[in-house]
Amino acid sequence: MLDEIDRALIHALHIDARAPFSRIGEVLGVSTQTVARRYQRLRADAGLRVVGLPDPDRAGLTQWLVRLTAQPATARTLARSLARRADTSWVKLTSGGTEIVTIAHTPRHSPSAMLLHDIPRTASVTAVSAHFILHTYLGGPTAWHGRVAALTDEQQEALRPPETVAEDEPLTSADHALIAALRHDGRTGIADLAAAANLAPATAARRLASLRERGALFFDVEISAALYGVTTQAFLWIAVPPADLDEVATTLATHEELAVVVATTGPTNLAAQALCPDPAALHRYLTHRLGALRAIHTVHTAPVLEIVKAVGPLTR
Question: pTM for the whole thing?
Answer without folding.
Answer: 0.90
